[in-house]
Amino acid sequence: MKEDLRVIKTKRNIKSVMMDLLKKKPIEKITVTELASHALINKGTFYHHYSDIYDLYQELVSDFIENTIGSLNYYEEFFTEPESFLQKFLHDFRENDIKKTFPFFNEGTHSLFLPYYVTELLLDRLMSVNYVENTIENRVRVQCCITAITASKSHFDESYNNIIVQVASKMIHSAFPQ
C-alpha cells in the first residue's frame, strides 16, 4: 500500500529539521517541542510518526545506510568472488567516510551501533540476489561472515584492509564452496 503524500511530506519535513538541528547540537539537547516548533507542526503530529527523538534518529541512520548500501551493484560477488566484493565494499563503505559524509552521525551516549545496522541491511540485500537458498542456515552463514567483516573493520584501520579481505574471503569460500 502506498504511503499518503501528506505523510511523506510531513516525515520529510521532520527529518530535514532534525538534520538541521543535529548540525547545531547533539541529539541529547534536542527536544520534541523544539523540533516541532522548527518544523511548524504540533507535538502530536511528531508522536504520530515517531515514539521519541531517538526513534527519529534511528530512522535517519537507517535511511542513510539504506541509500548507501542500496546503491551497490555487486552483491552476487559476495558468493562468486568474495575478494572482489570485499575490496569494493571496504572502499565504498568505510566507517570513516560515513562519519565525514553523515553530518548527523553521533558518537555520544546515544550513538547507534553502526556495524549492526550495516549487517542487517547487507544480510537482506545479499539474500535477495538468490545465489543461495534463503534458509535459516544460509542466513546464519551470511550473517557470520558479514559480522566478521564489519566487526573487523570497526576494530582495525585502513592499513589492515588487505588482511581483512584475505581472512574474510577464506571464510566466505569455506561457508559457500562453489
From TrEMBL:
Pfam families named in the record: TetR_N
Protein's name according to its UniProt entry: TetR family transcriptional regulator
Organism, scientific name: Lacrimispora xylanisolvens
DNA-binding region: 31-50
Keyword DNA-binding: yes
MF term (GO), any: DNA binding
InterPro entries according to UniProt: Homeodomain-like_sf, HTH-type_Tx_Regulator, HTH_TetR
Superkingdom in the source lineage: Bacteria
Residue ranges of coiled coil: none
Key words, A-Z: DNA-binding
Residue ranges of every copy of the HTH tetR-type domain listed in the record: 8-68
